[in-house]
Design goal:
Length: about 300
């Protein structure tokens, strides 16, 4: 059976729903994991020092396709091979990242999906402001181990904040302990709200974020619904289950003989806005009816 090496910036527990989407994409073209295709999952929770050795092993074994989620993994894959097909999903512009020559004609051995995590930060900040109009000081939490996403997110947020009239304070965290330390700073500095940057490691700590925001009574906004489903306040971002499905579709197309250079880079078109009313009530936030009307999901 052909072998797909799948590298995901996150944990198996936090991306279980998205992996189901990936398998659905494979199934749509007739591939069933364990029957006519094998998928070898590698969960990356950072730091990413071991990526070159991991990719070297996949290249040595001549896997049929390398599927990657996240910027560090796709960059390492591109550096490791110029021949094995790569299907990626990245939050940034793959042309600027140097992964493809253009969106319409990727050239080379890589293609995939751009899921716009950083670019939707402007709308997410506006939704947070609409939910908490009295908020003035917003803390932004970034993961320095994922510099491309961290830098683009901060740039987008700062630009949007200057228009809305918000004050932005940025802090870094790339470990469990650093997340705890960041919350201590938020509390001492009197932040009115928290804006968590999109990041695979942060998704693995969704329960930690829910616990800390409830303890310190800090309203927080996230990029994925995973945070909201475990007690977070709100999220707005790409539907990652659909993104993973598209990765599966492209991987199966390549298994059937398609060339990455002939498959244009897709751009996400499905976004979801989720609100959890339980933490809103705990924080004393009355969610405006206008936000409830446009929410894709309201958790009671």
């Amino acid at each position: 059976m052909p072998l797909i090496g799948f590298l995901i910036n996150g944990s198996a527990d936090s991306f279980a729903r998205e992996v189901i989407g990936f398998r659905k994409g494979l199934n749509e073209s007739g591939y069933v994991e364990g029957q006519n295709v094998t998928v070898e999952y590698h969960w990356l929770e950072g730091p990413f020092d071991g990526l070159p050795a991991l990719l070297a092993d996949l290249v040595h074994r001549q896997v049929a396709v390398i599927a990657t989620i996240g910027i560090p993994a796709v960059r390492a894959a591109k550096a490791a091979t110029a021949t094995i097909p790569i299907v990626f999903a990245v939050p940034g512009d793959p042309v600027q990242l140097g992964v493809v020559a253009s969106l319409a004609r990727p050239s080379g051995n890589a293609t995939g999906i751009n899921f716009f995590s950083a670019e939707v930060s402007t709308k997410r900040l506006r939704l947070l402001h609409d939910l908490i109009p009295k908020a003035v000081r917003v803390a932004v939490l970034l993961n320095p181990s994922n510099p491309s996403t961290a830098e683009s997110t901060l740039r987008e947020v700062q630009a949007a904040a200057s228009v809305i009239g918000l004050q932005i304070q940025s802090l870094n965290a790339s470990t469990i302990g650093e997340i705890d330390a960041a919350f201590a700073v938020f509390k001492s500095n009197g932040a009115d709200a928290l804006f968590v940057a999109p990041d695979g490691f942060f998704i693995t700590r969704a329960v930690q974020f829910a616990t800390l925001t409830a303890r310190d009574r800090i309203p927080a906004s996230y990029a994925q619904r995973d945070f909201v489903s475990v007690g977070g306040l709100m999220s707005y971002g790409t539907d990652l289950t659909e993104t993973f499905r598209q990765v599966g579709v492209y991987a199966s197309s390549i298994l059937k003989g398609a060339k990455p250079a002939d498959l244009p880079v897709l751009q996400s078109t499905r976004f979801e806005f989720v609100i959890n009313l339980q933490p809103a009530r705990t924080l004393g936030i009355e969610v405006p009816s206008g936000l409830l009307a446009i929410a894709d999901e309201v958790i009671e």
